[in-house]
Specification:
The chain folds into two domains: 48 residues, Helicase, Ruva Protein, domain 3 (Orthogonal Bundle), CATH 1.10.8; 124 residues, Dna Topoisomerase Vi A Subunit, Chain: A, domain 2. The protein is elongated and about 60 Å long. 43% of the residues lie in helices and 14% in strands. With 197 residues, the protein is of the alpha/beta class.
């Protein structure tokens, strides 16, 4: 293993999602030329995120407080829960301004080939907060991928027996894409046209 600091930084950056060898090398060289105060601020921000950010005790989104701002907002409809794969999906849906309920973040999708089963996702926490009394709706907004569809089907079977209304976002989002990269208008239409599963 190389002790060269630039090679080590490049190797570490390459481990980030979406960063290949060339991008990692460009980022490492950029950081090498960056002012020392910027590099120090970046290192401090990384350390603070690792130290302070945790999962919301209700929805499993990322937050600094025990409860995220959405779960803490009394104006949100807690009888409607939108289930998403990743914290980035919450931000994408929030940008549309269409949804006034709460969220639940699974932190992934079922993928047996990758070793991701129900126990690796925050499904137990979802089931603990969904009770059939009153009007309840769970919107399944997993990505329209094979794994996302499998996750939606699995959750619909788990949630259906207790008498909870389970809906799936409409298929205005193209198959194989991810919510994070879909425009707000398409996501808004998908939320408005959701269907019961």
């Amino acid at each position: 293993m190389s002790t060269d600091p630039l090679a080590r930084l490049t190797r570490l950056l390459k481990q980030l999602p979406g960063i290949g060898p060339k991008s990692a090398q460009r980022l490492a060289l950029h950081l090498l030329r960056a002012p020392g105060e910027y590099v120090g601020e970046l290192a401090g921000a990384l350390h603070r995120v690792q130290e302070r950010v945790r999962l919301c005790e209700v929805c499993c989104d990322v937050t600094e407080a025990p409860r995220c701002p959405i779960c803490s907002d009394a104006r949100r409809d807690d009888h409607t829960v939108c289930v998403v794969e990743q914290p980035t999906d919450v931000r994408v849906l929030e940008r549309t301004g269409e949804f006034r309920g709460t969220y639940h973040v699974l932190h992934g999708a079922l993928s047996p080939l990758d070793g991701v089963g129900p126990d690796e996702l925050h499904i137990k926490e979802l089931l603990a907060r969904i009770r059939p009394e009153g009007d309840r709706e769970v919107i399944l907004a997993s990505n329209p991928t094979v794994e996302g569809e499998a996750t939606a089907l699995y959750l619909s079977k788990l949630l259906k027996p207790p008498g909870v209304k389970v809906t799936r976002i409409a298929q205005g989002i193209s198959v194989g894409s991810e919510l994070e990269y879909t425009d707000g208008g398409t996501i808004a239409r998908a939320l408005q046209n959701r269907q019961e599963v």
